């Protein structure tokens, strides 16, 4: 009667647990496993309880052998679930068998040990004293059995189920290792080693594509093969939102959650089988897919169980977090590097600007000193000449010849002073964009003759022959008469000033629709380095800056000039729509050529552009 109640209740409880598990799981394979177990258990229990439990109560014992056969049927269902749906691996069966055997062994040993002890001491295990002693023994047994069961579970898992590793320990260790890695390749290598040491597939592929476009492959030999051979796989897999896929599961029965994407899933399966892969797992972060892990069959030839699939998904999730952290670290590192480079470049730029500013201030200060000297000299000369005239007049020793000489010297000093002031004023107007030029018909002969006469005495005083070469016919150019005279005067003055001996030639010739003025000297010449800076404000060629020095075997002439004469010349020529060309060779002399448009009768008498309007004119 006891068995008639106990056994049905046992089966009902088992069925309830299996039905509950079936309703809770969303895994296709687990559903098939539980369904097979339920079907086998229902058939076995129904037939077995009928022939071996219900009929014997009616004194019918002839069909007991049928109940025994149903046990064989149940075992067949178990084997079918194992090989068809991967219910258990052989290792799992052995592990569970050893676990329950060892677990029950300690219970039996302790039970009979206590009974033998109580019988030997108290004569019976049911003595009141033994019942009281059973309380502390029971408490101790619970504590000892819990430790024993935990120890047996760990040992069985490490020795049989997962030889050499435990999933929980591996995941904890993997999380710890990934959390301290900040290098992509090190994280990928750790994932590779973990997969190899645990699941041990025959082949596998790890593919990572980062935000910056970098791609990583493991094994390395796939670096050229992967993009081509798996291109179709990625296209179809994207259509099903990169969900994990296991070939065996889909081949058993098509999953319900993939029914709306059946064609896409079948395409992915086809691509995986073409590459001998059995399972594919995505590596996701919060925003996008970073990569994939694909595994072939295991070395043992068995399929991947559901917990192994979950184990692989956990590895991929941790890997995604590690890659995201490494990516953030790399971004910060790159930003810091970029920031340092920008700071370095900005610092260098500021330093260079400070150097140039300091140099400009020094040059300007020196030029102001020189300018003050240049301005004082003519005035001092005139003052001294007037003083000499007064003294000689008072002493009645001033004759007409001396008077004429002193007046000519005073006039020359005044002319120099006026020329220098005009240059300074022109420079100021140019800098402030206030310079206006009149476009008019200019007689070239008049300009050359005025310069020739003005600097004839200066050339004669140095023993330099001043020459002018003009066209056979009267020539006119389109320019500002006053500013053109200032340009030619400045060039002739410089040529005479920096020529120790020889000639200075003022040559004019027509060049197509242009008129060219050339001032040619036989002076010391200008170096190639200084030629690059001609026309810059306050620049003076080194030939005329350093004293008591030589260029090669030639003596350098003493300092002279303000450094603004040529600057004004270059600007005035540019504003008159002309160009200036310089040719020079150290030791042989220099040629400054100014080219301006030839005057045409149809040329208008309008005003040249102001400085602000000609800022876009190309400097020559």
UniProtKB/TrEMBL annotation:
Record PROSITE patterns: HIS_KIN
Keywords: Kinase, Membrane, Phosphoprotein, Transferase, Transmembrane, Transmembrane helix, Two-component regulatory system
Documented EC number(s): 2.7.13.3
Positions of the Histidine kinase domain: 370-600
Keyword tRNA-binding attributed: no
Transmembrane region(s): 6-22, 34-55, 67-87, 99-123
InterPro entries, per the entry: GAF-like_dom_sf, HATPase_C_sf, HATPase_dom, His_kinase_dom, HisK_dim/P_dom, HisK_dim/P_sf, Sensor_HK_Regulatory, Sig_transdc_His_kin-like_C
Catalytic activity: ATP + protein L-histidine = ADP + protein N-phospho-L-histidine
Keyword set includes Transmembrane helix: yes
A GO term for molecular function: phosphorelay sensor kinase activity
Domain of life: Bacteria
Annotated protein name in UniProt: histidine kinase
Organism encoding this protein: Candidatus Dojkabacteria bacterium
Taxonomic lineage from the root: Bacteria, Candidatus Dojkabacteria
């Amino acid at each position: 009667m006891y068995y008639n109640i106990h056994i049905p209740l046992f089966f009902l409880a088992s069925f309830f647990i299996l039905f509950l598990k079936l309703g809770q799981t969303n895994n296709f394979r687990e559903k098939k496993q539980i369904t097979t177990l339920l079907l086998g258990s229902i058939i076995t229990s129904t037939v077995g309880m009928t022939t071996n439990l219900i009929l014997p109560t009616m004194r019918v014992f002839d069909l007991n052998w049928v109940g025994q056969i149903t046990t064989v049927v149940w075992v067949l269902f178990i084997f079918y679930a194992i090989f068809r749906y991967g219910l258990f691996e052989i290792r799992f069966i052995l592990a569970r068998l050893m676990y329950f055997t060892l677990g029950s062994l300690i219970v039996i040993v302790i039970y009979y040990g206590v009974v033998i002890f109580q019988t030997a001491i108290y004569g019976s295990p049911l003595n009141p004293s033994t019942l009281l002693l059973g309380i502390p023994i029971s408490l101790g047994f619970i504590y000892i059995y819990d430790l024993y069961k935990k120890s047996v579970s760990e040992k069985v898992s490490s020795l049989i189920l997962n030889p050499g590793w435990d999933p929980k320990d591996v995941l904890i260790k993997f999380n710890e290792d990934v959390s301290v890695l900040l290098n992509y390749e090190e994280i990928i290598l750790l994932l590779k080693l973990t997969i190899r040491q645990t699941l041990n597939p025959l082949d596998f592929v790890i593919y990572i594509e980062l935000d910056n476009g970098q791609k990583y492959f493991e094994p390395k030999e796939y670096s050229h093969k992967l993009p081509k051979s798996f291109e179709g796989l990625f296209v179809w897999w994207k259509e099903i939102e990169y969900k994990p896929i296991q070939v065996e599961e889909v081949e058993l029965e098509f999953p319900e959650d993939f029914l709306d994407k059946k064609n896409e899933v079948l395409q992915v399966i086809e691509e995986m089988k073409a590459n001998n892969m059995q399972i594919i797992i995505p590596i996701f972060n919060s925003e996008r897919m970073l990569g994939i892990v694909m595994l072939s069959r295991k070395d043992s030839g068995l399929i991947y169980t559901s917990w192994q699939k979950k184990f692989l998904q956990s590895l991929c999730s941790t890997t995604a977090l590690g890659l995201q952290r490494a990516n953030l670290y790399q971004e910060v590192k790159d930003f810091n590097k970029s920031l340092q480079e920008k700071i370095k470049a900005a610092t260098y730029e500021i330093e260079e600007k400070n150097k140039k500013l300091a140099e400009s201030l020094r040059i300007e200060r020196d030029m102001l000193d020189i300018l003050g000297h240049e301005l004082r000299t003519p005035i001092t000369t005139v003052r001294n000449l007037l003083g000499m005239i007064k003294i000689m007049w008072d002493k009645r020793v001033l004759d007409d010849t001396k008077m004429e000489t002193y007046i000519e010297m005073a006039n020359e000093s005044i002319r120099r002073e006026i020329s220098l002031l005009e240059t300074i004023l022109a420079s100021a107007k140019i800098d402030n964009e206030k310079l206006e030029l009149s476009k008019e018909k200019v007689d070239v002969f008049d300009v050359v003759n005025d310069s020739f006469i003005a600097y004839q005495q200066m050339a004669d005083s140095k023993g330099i022959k001043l020459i002018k070469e003009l066209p056979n016919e009267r020539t006119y150019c389109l320019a500002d008469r006053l500013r053109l005279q200032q340009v030619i005067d400045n060039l002739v003055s410089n040529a005479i000033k920096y020529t120790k001996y020889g000639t200075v030639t003022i040559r004019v010739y027509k060049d197509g629709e242009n008129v060219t003025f050339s001032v040619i000297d036989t002076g010391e010449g200008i170096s190639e380095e200084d030629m690059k800076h001609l026309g810059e404000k306050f620049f003076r060629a080194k030939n005329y800056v350093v004293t008591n020095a030589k260029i090669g075997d030639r003596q350098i002439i003493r300092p002279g000039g303000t450094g603004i004469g040529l600057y004004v010349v270059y600007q005035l020529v540019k504003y008159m729509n002309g160009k200036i060309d310089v040719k020079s060779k150290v030791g042989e002399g220099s040629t400054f050529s100014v080219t301006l448009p030839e005057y045409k009768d149809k040329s208008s008498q309008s005003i040249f552009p102001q400085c602000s309007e000609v800022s876009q004119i190309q400097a020559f």
